[in-house]
Amino acid sequence: MTLEVEMPKLFGTSGIRGIANREVTSELALKVGLALATYIENGSFLVARDTRVSGEMIENALTAGILAGGANANKIGIAPTPALAFLTKKHSLNAGVMITASHNPPEYNGIKIFNSDSTGFNEKQQEEIEKIIENENFRLAEWNKIGKCVDVKYWIKDYIHQILGNLSFKKSWFVVVDPGCGATSTVAPFIFRELGCKVRALNAQPDGFFPARSPLPDKESLKPLGSVVRELKADIGIAYDGDGDRVVFMDENGNFVSLDQSLALYAAYVIERNRGGTVVTHVEASMCVEDTVEKLSGKVLRTKVGDVSIANAMKNCGAVFGGEPCGAWIHPEHHFCPDGILSSVLFL
User: Could you tell me the fold of the domain covering 260-348?
Assistant: First the structure.
């Protein structure tokens, strides 16, 4: 009797994730790049990474696979995940690939793929990539059809401009920004300064070891941020996770703001501004979302856990806002990827 052994599922709710050089290896990254170039023939892709130590290794292997498959790779280096998603859409590329493990510890890394409309790859698309890898059904380009690699770091200005060009503040806020040594370290403080804020930045030096605090901004890890907000008498404290798709707030007294409450309050604001509409969240979010939204004649749609499920539901039903109670908020008028920096600017 022959037993068929199923290949372990590569993709979870947020792409591929695992410990670098153990589960997420350069060999796997090469295969993902080849599979993507096979899946989208003659494609042009955007590639970015967060600050993790293993990021450059994974990036180089992934890029090699893309080029070997005859596709082109446009590399922006270190950038927040939402910037990668937005720029993939803006520059009409076939897909974007983000190398990140988001809020996980520094030894982890991962690969997340985005469509040209800024939504993450859905389950069917992920299964197609997995099948190509499992069967090693790669399409290798002839030597004279190998793809090109282009450095497009300057594209990050387009992400910055889409925030600065559409938003402004009625007052000058005093904000303490804590990027946690992650992908928002340079971009977030710059944006708030350009918007006229008085800014104090903590942990704003890119460092893939995340020496200052965990890449997960939670109540415990943000106690130092709360202390600084109190001591400086700032208006608000703002913290991001490792790749910038989540945001967490500290109030003017340095207290951690409940993630469920901030989601519900902002959802209510969007419903009131739009005079109705649908908000999408997942099944584990607090009922306070319904309580606030339905009072304003809005509707709440719930999906399974994961920002990809939320984004696809938002797109299908024309939702005005969506998010998870972990600080991952989606603003469909901009793009369909959770965006910590954009969310924090809009929250003010």
Answer: Alpha-D-Glucose-1,6-Bisphosphate; Chain A, domain 3 (3.40.120)
Q: What is the pLDDT of residues 198-221, one digit of tens each?
A: 999 999 999 999 999 999 999 999
Q: Is 61 strand, coil or helix?
A: helix
The label of the residue with tokens 């589960």 reads 23
Q: DSSP 3-state assignment of 247? A: strand
CA–chain centroid gap for 12, Å, is 15
In this structure, the number of other CB atoms found within 10 A of the CB of residue 142 comes to 7
Residue 214 burial (CB < 10 Å; 0-12/13-18/19+)? middle
Residue whose entry in the numeric block shows the structure tokens 């997420």? 24
In this predicted model, what pLDDT tens digit does every residue of 98-116 receive, in sequence order?
999 999 999 999 999 999 9
Q: How confident is the model at residue 8 (pLDDT cuts 50, 70, 90)?
A: low
Report whether 222 contacts 256 (CB < 8 A): yes
Per-residue pLDDT at 4: 46
Catalytic residue numbers read 102
Which residues have C-beta within 8 Å of that of residue 336, sequence separation ≥ 6? 85, 117, 118, 119, 311, 314, 315, 330
- Could you tell me where in the chain the CATH 3.40.120.10 domains are found? 11-158, 168-257, 260-348
Interval 28-58: pLDDT, tens: 999 999 999 999 999 999 999 999 999 999 9
**CA–CA separation, 140 vs 91, rounded Å?**
26
**Superfamily, domain 11-158:** Alpha-D-Glucose-1,6-Bisphosphate, subunit A, domain 3 (3.40.120.10)
Q: Under CATH, which number does the domain 168-257 receive?
A: 3.40.120.10
DSSP string, 76-142: EEE--HHHHHHHHHHTT-SEEEEE--TTS-TTEEEEEEEETTSPBP-HHHHHHHHHHHHHT---PPP
The pTM score is 0.95
Of 265, 232, 41, 324, nearest in space to 314 by CA: 324
Per the CB < 8 A criterion, the answer to whether 174 and 150 are in contact is no
